């Protein structure tokens, strides 16, 4: 299988909300910006927007369909001349588009010899809405006069601190028992992962302020107390996670005073006490649809710990992929972990024609679980069975129901038993509420 590149072939997608008497429309416009005519090709488009397999298509036909993956044929004998465009209008989607990232994320041309030609895909635009596109997070400006003197998120139960001193060069952690030592090591790893060049943890010889870690009784799970005074800080807790959370709060105070000295202070005296109000503080990551490597998972776990989250919901399998190594069933990862043109799992969700994906080895899983545990995070794995297992059945076809009345493969006529389209708010702001 070969892959060629022609970046001058582009695809523009437009969402047209429903007007009086008309259905909403999803318009795909392919332009040949090259010097040679194009013929004998199929247009392959990946979502996340889903076409209805019975959708009315103007300008071509829907050849194959699986969830958010679609292949379109141009009219018979069609030739896309240099500089010309080919427009497809789809009159029915499984749900209305809501965001500009809901449309085509990847597209390519599939040729008769099995090769592919890359297509450059622009962001989906909405007809009638000229608002600028936004992506990612908007940085919240740090106020010059914030309502609190110290920088902490989430805000603790009790804060009674006074005074302001020059922010110390760093924090010199002093642990007197094995549990406190583990907490200190976890915090040092955490800050090195997130803020490696800042030197939050540093010894006394390099100007670090003494921070005594005290494992004591009388504390609820994950609770802690921070005491300021006499040129040192004492953190007390009843367990390792409580000590880590106390260190995180102190680290946040240090970073706030260090980065924004006009807004936040490092206290001279007083105390902070806190304990979680909710036992389950979780974050969900779907790695079946979008794979993330071990290094990325560790970074995410560190961010969770810095925000005192304690449950990592790890979504390891779905229709789009199987992501965890099972020694007894190697085909689960040999086949089920990869998507691409011509593979048993097509390039769903716009992952592109080249083989992409990955999986977590047993050793990687052990390391991730251990790293999470050191930060007070419990890993909650999710394996989808018996539903949502297209990838599993592609890898282990012997598990298919022999009485199934239709083949488990993708095609325009594969699945007619879809759920009714759900009313959704579209990206132009029209339509019913979700």
Keywords:
alpha/beta; 11-stranded mixed beta sheet; single chain; disordered N terminus
Describe the structure.
Residues 1-5 and 407-434 have low confidence and may be disordered. The protein is an alpha/beta fold and 434 residues long. The longest helix is centred in the middle third of the chain and has 20 residues, at 240-259. Helix 1 (178-194) packs parallel to helix 2. It contains six helices and 26 strands.
Q: What's the short version?
A:
This protein is an alpha/beta fold.
Radius of gyration: 27 Å
Low-confidence stretches: 1-5, 407-434
Give a count of the beta strands, DSSP E runs of length 2 or more.
Answer: 26
Structural class by secondary-structure content:
alpha/beta
Biggest sheet character: 11 strands, mixed
Overall helicity: 10-25%
| Count of helix runs | 6
Task: Map the helices and strands.
Layout: E1 3-4, E2 9-16, E3 25-32, E4 38-39, E5 41-46, E6 57-58, E7 61-66, E8 69-73, E9 79-80, E10 85-90, E11 106-111, E12 116-121, E13 125-126, E14 158-162, E15 170-175, H1 178-194, E16 208-215, E17 224-229, E18 232-237, H2 240-259, E19 269-274, E20 282-286, H3 294-306, E21 311-315, E22 317-318, E23 321-322, H4 331-334, E24 338-339, E25 356-357, H5 362-374, E26 378-382, H6 390-395
Parallel strand pairs: 1-12, 2-12, 2-13, 15-16, 16-18, 20-21, 21-26
Antiparallel strand pairs: 2-3, 3-10, 4-9, 5-8, 5-11, 6-10, 7-8, 11-12, 14-19, 17-18, 17-19, 22-23, 24-25
Helix pairs in contact: 1-2, 1-3, 3-5
């Amino acid at each position: 299988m070969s892959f060629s590149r022609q970046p001058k072939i582009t695809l523009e997608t437009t969402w047209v909300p429903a007007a009086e008497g008309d259905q909403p429309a999803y318009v795909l416009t392919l332009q040949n910006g090259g010097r040679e005519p194009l013929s004998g090709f199929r247009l392959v488009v990946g979502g996340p927007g889903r076409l209805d397999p019975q959708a009315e298509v103007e300008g071509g036909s829907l050849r194959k369909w699986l969830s958010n993956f679609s292949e379109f044929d141009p009219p018979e004998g069609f030739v896309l001349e240099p500089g010309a465009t080919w427009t497809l209008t789809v009159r029915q989607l499984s749900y209305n588009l809501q965001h500009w990232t809901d449309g085509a994320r990847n597209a390519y041309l599939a040729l008769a010899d099995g090769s592919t030609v890359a297509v450059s895909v622009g962001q989906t635009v909405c007809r009638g809405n000229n608002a600028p596109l936004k992506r990612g997070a908007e940085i919240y400006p740090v106020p010059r006069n914030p309502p609190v003197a110290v920088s902490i998120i989430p805000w603790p139960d009790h804060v009674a601190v006074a005074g302001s001193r020059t922010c110390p060069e760093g924090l010199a952690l002093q642990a007197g028992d094995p549990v406190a030592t583990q907490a200190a090591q976890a915090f040092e790893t955490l800050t090195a992962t997130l803020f490696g060049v800042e030197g939050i943890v540093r010894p006394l010889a390099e100007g670090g302020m003494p921070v005594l870690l005290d494992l004591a009784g009388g504390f609820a799970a994950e609770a802690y107390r921070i005491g300021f005074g006499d040129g040192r800080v004492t953190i007390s807790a009843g367990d390792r996670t409580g000590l880590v959370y106390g260190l995180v709060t102190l680290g946040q105070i240090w970073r706030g005073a260090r980065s924004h000295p006009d807004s936040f202070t490092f206290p001279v005296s007083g105390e902070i006490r806190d304990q979680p109000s909710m036992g389950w503080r979780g974050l969900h990551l779907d790695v079946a649809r979008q794979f993330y490597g071990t290094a990325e998972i560790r970074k995410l776990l560190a961010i969770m710990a810095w925000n005192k989250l304690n449950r990592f919901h790890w979504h390891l399998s779905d229709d789009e992929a199987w992501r965890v190594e099972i020694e007894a069933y190697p085909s689960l990862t040999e086949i089920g972990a990869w998507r691409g043109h011509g593979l048993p799992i097509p390039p769903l969700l716009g992952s592109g024609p080249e083989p992409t994906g990955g999986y977590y080895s047993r050793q990687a899983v052990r390391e991730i679980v251990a790293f999470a545990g050191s930060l007070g995070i419990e890993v909650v794995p999710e394996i989808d069975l018996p539903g949502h297992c297209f990838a599993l059945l592609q890898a282990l076809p012997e598990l298919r129901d022999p009485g199934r009345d239709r083949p488990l493969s993708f095609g325009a006529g594969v699945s007619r038993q879809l759920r009714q389209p759900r009313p959704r708010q579209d990206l132009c702001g029209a339509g019913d509420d979700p």
